[in-house]
Amino acid sequence: MSSQQPYSFFQSVERSFDKAAKFTKWDKGLLEQIKACNSIYSMRFPVKMDNGEIEVIEAYRVQHSQHKTPCKGGIRFSLAVNEDEVMALASLMTYKCAIVNVPFGGAKGGIKISPRSHSAYELEKITRRYTAELVKKNFIGPGIDVPAPDYGTGEREMAWIVDTYQSLRPGDIDSAGCVTGKPITQGGVRGRKEATGLGVFFGIREVCNMPEIMTKLGMTTGVEGKRVVVQGLGNVGYHSAKFFREHGAIVVSIAEYEGAVYKEDGINEEELFQHRKATGSILNFPGATNLAKNTDALELECDILIPAALENVIDGNNAPRVKAKMIGEAANGPLTPEADEIFAERGILVVPDMYLNAGGVTVSYFEWLKNLSHVRYGRMEKRFTENMNAHILGQIEGLTGKTVSEKERDFIMHGAEEVDLVHSGLEETMINATREIMEIWLSNPEIPDMRTAAYVSAINKVAISYTELGIFP
Ligand code: NAD
Questions:
Q1: What is the CATH classification number for the domain harbouring 150?
Q2: Catalytic residue (one of 68, 108, 325, 461)
């Protein structure tokens, strides 16, 4: 807890929870149980570094809730890791999973290291030892707790985790499901990389398709023609920009660490990415204007603003200058509570991170299901569907005496591949979650914002699971 902030991160999550709990009918005791972190494993273990010295590593795994099992949440490598942060992030995972109907409890892990200060060999030793500690305490497994990547970790670390787990639990037939975010060759799923950005797009598109909301915001329905500003050209920002552009929106500005660029008729994110790769900066992109400061992009005239970089980028200072009509929180925590209040007063819609960036965990759930079923999505039905479609098309052409174009034929015949099914499952998930949250928000005029409505949705779902378990009458 810093001296300026009156609440720790976990306490601030509790406050948001309490604010939303007022709009639910649940018993105080049940609400207390939902809020509490069920198990906290704080560990220290020694690792011999490349220079021969032994370093004691501080690490955590927090299982916030087992109302559904397994629990799920990423593992973070960062010097900022502490018990309070891991607790807060684990509880947010419980609510996030509940909102998007992913049947997991929330968890989170953290290792207090700076990944850049360690060699790959040291990182491997640390990751494998951490996994072994989790195995010893029964804190990992396809039916217990399933980690995933987070800050500072990726496919490589997940591959080390699954390999360590499998060597310590020989014969566990479902062992590949002990972690998600794995490389495809180790049991990963296609469509994971773009999942969060695509989920952001699906969520915002659904809001844009709601006439009553769009009228209130002074916009027409639909994504087409909307002017979009994206902050961050990393994984989430790049893919959000890509899907908005592909669906007819105009990405007028993209901001990065080194600056921001503006182009009235729209930026192609891939071209900008290549320009950055070649020149080391997004600035001086052909046909675009450089903005004086990278934060200027946040204050541009536009319809939709997508902060997809860091936390706390919009606060009480710059929120009054933001001109977007809708803000899609692709990053985690891009708005401070002061900014949130300012936007609520100004009638700017904030689509909250807790569900909008849930594409990653949703596709992780699909990966886990793939691992448990031991078969790639689409393997059983792809050819069957294609044969059936060819037959139906042949019948129609025979009966009508007409033929469809080559392009149409390919489209109709196509049997679903793994990536098609993953995208389609994600689309369904994000549409349903958006509608459920909106229904809660619109049905109670006292609920101040969509974030609180998202919490209400989460609390209701977790509470119902507890009552279904017979834990509370
Ligand atoms: P990333 O590291 O791939 O991308 C972040 C980008 O933001 C980088 O390119 C970085 O240079 C840029 N950036 C840093 N400071 C900036 C600034 N001041 N102005 C503009 N750009 C700046 O990370 P990511 O995976 O895209 O994650 C972005 C956010 O989304 C984080 O808050 C993360 O927690 C959240 N998120 C990510 C996922 C996921 O699946 N990757 C899932 C849920 C939430």
A1: 3.40.50.10860
A2: 108
